[in-house]
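USER: I would love a firmer grasp of how sequence relates to backbone shape in proteins. This is the protein in question:
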Amino acid sequence: MSLTPSPIELRARALTDLRMGLPVVIDMPEPMVICAAETLTQERLNSLRALGEVQAVISKWRADTLKISAYDDDVARFLVPNSADARWCNAVADPILDMSYPMKGPFQTVRGGEVRGQRAAVALLKAAHLLPMAITVSTSQPLSTLTHLPVEVLLHTGFGHVASASLPLQVSQAGRLHVYRPLWRGG
């Protein structure tokens, strides 16, 4: 038995960290630090700014609501202004705050470049049951205290179908039970 976390355990750790407000690093050629806008604090935002250019990535649905062009099909990217605080990030992410924090724009969108990490960040936030807006910074600085998640784990972690059977229900004959198992094994 290895003491190293398996890919499933790494993903679970990353989801928990994001829910708690901790950043997670997606290991790519240029590692990307991500935070959930919903749980972002001002201190963490200041720390992210010290690492480099801070960007936000949101789902296309939220981008359409905010009238932000989603140049990357399913996600939209924009710069987080230096004047913006953590409360602004939360207000952009949360539709409930649209009426109490109405003036959020204009947004300086980002076009071109690799978006695989940003898509993975939004998917990870959705898996953590958080609002789908990630605050991201690409950096080459070593951040050994944070959870590092290889991009392959994000792209390939899933569940495989094991078995299915009919459910004997009086109200419907279409009921079925499906059993799934994680595709990643061991550590």
